[in-house]
Amino acid sequence: MVSYKPEARSQKPEARSQKLMIKAIRGTRDLLPPDTALWNFVEAAVRDVFRAYNFQEIRTPIFEETQLFARSVGEETDIVSKEMYTWEDKARSFPEWALELLDRVQGTLGGSKLEALNYIASSRAEIEADRWKAQSLTLRPENTAGVVRAYIEHKLWDRGLNKLYYIGPQFRRERPQKGRYRQFYQIGAEVIGPPTAGSESPARDAEVLELLATLLDRLGIENWTLQLNSIGCSNDRAKYNDALRKALEPVAAEMCADCQRRAVTNPLRVFDCKVPEDQPIIEKLPRISQYLDEPCRKHFEEVQAILKSVGVEFHLNDRLVRGLDYYTRTAFEFTHGALGAQNAILGGGRYDGLSESLGGPSAPGIGFAIGEDRLVLALKQSAEAVQVKPDVYIAPLGTGMDREAARLARELRRHDIVVELGDENFRLKKSFETATKAGARYILIVGENEVKAGAFTLKHLESGEQVSVPRSELAKRIQTGR
Ligand code: HAM
What we know:
Strand order of the largest sheet: 1-5-6-11-10-9-7-8
Bound molecules: histidyl-adenosine monophosphate
Radius of gyration: 30 Å
Shape: globular
Structural class: alpha+beta
Number of strands: 16
């Protein structure tokens, strides 16, 4: 690893101040108020919907072993081959290594001498083995792999069917543009469990898709289109890959370098190609829908039948193969017209073989991830409209009144009233201006006379209506005026 070096001091002060100005990394951004109100609005609605469908939250680490993504998302995918933030994590330093050994030795002192000796010998061998080993780690580019790893690691099959959701940042080194960032946020869910828990059933697929339709409706997002496909099981895929290889053989030489490689190693990934000149060739390739076996066809028909019965519209698109290797059977994307080039607001599908490919038991699953950045872009609401504004601005008037105002603020906040607290050094005019700027509904004047009388002047800022309210009735009065 390259270590941090302090910056050399520049002679010229302007040059120095320019150097000191550190900006956010390209493709990352600060989410600031009032926009964060929109993000909170979305997340609150999402949590409500997940609750109604009996999903529970899971949080997995932001970085994992690189191999996890290579083995699940796939070596040939754009994500793994071009877009991951990967680094070699330092090997253990000598002091770290020695401390760990001492800890382990200490841990054996309560047992018999033989036990302790055996334990020390095996610990020593283990620590020696990876003493100098650096580990390749990667910032997660997506969360399905982490969830399935956690499923296996914690034997979550004991819980039967797991319905899990997550909200959090993901990292991909893509070219930044509107709706595409290097740190972006996903709201995702995974339904996974042993086949005996019903994890393979088309009812799961349909429920997940219906949840998504409900969620988008609930957020007031219109004009979305559900693109639906089945990309079959591993048997179908083998037959389809053969057909693709055959079809690509005579034309691959005319395609881009990536496609030429994919045509041999993983022909399905040819569909991820964005090179315009390759598109007419790709358009003529065989379609997966012709290669589905009977059980896959039936499964897909049942997903469609349930969707029709619950009234969720969809468009069949047998070119939709998704850019990750773990998918089987149902694959889908929701697109939204207002998003421009990055119009996929979410994507997902089944991954019936993923657990096994990571060394776990059979655990069919289906899930999705919504691009939260894109979801927020598609919202009709303005941040202003969903922002929480103070119910009341307390204006302390005169020396010593900060203390009284603080007591009142504490009382009112206990009643769940949103309070903004002023400053006794402000003149009344400045307090009014500050209260108006903060968007407060009321201003409450706290002066010596009011404190003595135990009644306070409460003024509605928009209507100008002003009343004197006894301390004990303040909370009620402010709440009813909401
Ligand atoms: P994905 O299609 O790679 O699927 O990503 C899902 C969504 O994340 C996309 O539809 C898009 O809205 C958003 N997204 C992806 N990359 C970016 C980016 N660079 N900037 C902004 N938004 C982005 C997955 O990640 C799968 N793990 C989904 C899944 C879950 N499949 C099964 N379970």
